[in-house]
Known about the structure:
The protein is of the alpha/beta class. Helices cover 26% and strands 18% of the residues.
Amino acid sequence: xxxxxxxxxxYAINPWMDTTAPVDTELAVKQWEGLRETxxxxxxxxxxxxxxxxxxxxxxxxxxxxxVDGVVYGARFRYPQRMAEAAAHKRFYAELGWKYTTPVxxxxxxxxxxxxxxYLGGVVLAGHGFRTEVAAHSEAQEALGRPVISLRLVxxxxxxxxxxxxxxxxSNITYYPGAxxxxxxxxxxxxxxxxxxxxxxxALAFGLNLVSDGRNVVLNTEATALAAKLRSAGYVPVPVELxxxxxxxxxxxxxxxxxxx
Length: 261
């Protein structure tokens, strides 16, 4: 995670960013600390990536890379405003001693990649349509040695996979069907018949931009209907408030880069 000490909405590169809406940086830091403390309380170790001046979106740490079994597929951001973030993440993984692949293709890390370790022996779900090029999916497959299933996003409000779909445990997911093409919806129905289906309201509240450890599901406080569905499915919803960071187009998952050693 990377604290939002320099967070601001200085440009608009997704439908949620409004440069005329003021950002309370102090409140953003307080809410981020609440998320970090929640994850720590649930038993998780949080590594902190130092934020850098001039990179206001660095708080969305999920976008900087994607890792599986200590192997890292780096990010190559679509927009120039965020490109320098990739180098900061690369240095972080170098300190861990993990194998790092520098990408040729445009991709935005865990924004558009996620991993299900127990599904079909370990499979990557990958989004494309707005930020990540579909060619990056095959590049990631070569780098990580894991099969990649391509999922096409069609609604610009859900510009990354991680605002439209999330793993709940090692083999099941939750998602909002309307974010995907009809053919992708058919694929998801076939692959995940027991998925928890979110409605548009909860998707627009960034409810799917969540982090789950297989039992506890940390998600935005506004996604109340999704929280109820998750509880009924046997998970424990853990709501957190991230109103300031939503102004940049992200919530819980955007703030968390999951490390898979």
